[in-house]
Design a protein that fits this description.
It is a single chain. The protein is mainly α. The protein has one domain. It is 72% helix and 0% strand. The protein is built from 6 helices and no strands. The two termini are 18 Å apart. The mean pLDDT is 93.
Length: 142
């Protein structure tokens, strides 16, 4: 496919989702604190108690979120590449791959954030909705 080929709305939306995943992954690697206020609320323990009973919990969570962020960023790179380079070629089997990828990444994350009553749950509802729109447009061929 030439670099000047016209891409549909679905490719643009999915590429944006991929870039968003990269950004979110970088946030998890470099900026996300080990414990957010919503984490403490969900656990139902006082921060001082957690520090006393599990003094290395925050250090461990920092490592966990670094790994998780790396996987998010890596998935985002693949999604953006797939959207920008492969989707315009309409490879066979792309639709179920796109649907399963969206369900296992952004939709699952959004659902869990609603389960946790996350402060960010409504914001995190956006990417799965964009993903669903992109897949629907792709099926309709933009």
């Amino acid at each position: 496919m030439s670099g000047s080929a016209k891409r549909g709305v679905s490719e643009w939306l999915l590429a944006c989702c991929g870039v968003w995943l990269v950004g979110l992954g970088l946030y998890f690697v470099f900026l996300r604190p080990a414990m957010l206020p919503e984490d403490i609320r969900f656990i139902g323990a006082q921060p001082g108690v957690l520090q006393t009973t599990a003094p290395r919990l925050e250090q461990w969570l920092g490592l966990v979120f670094t790994v998780l962020g790396g996987f998010m960023a890596g998935a985002g790179v693949l999604v953006a590449h797939f959207a920008w380079i492969l989707m315009p070629q309409r490879p066979r089997g792309a639709t179920p791959v796109l649907a399963l990828t969206g369900a296992s990444t952004v939709a699952l994350m959004s659902a869990i954030n609603f389960e946790l009553s996350s402060d960010f749950r409504w914001l995190l509802l956006g990417p799965p909705l964009v993903w669903v729109a992109a897949v629907a447009l792709y099926i309709r061929r933009d």
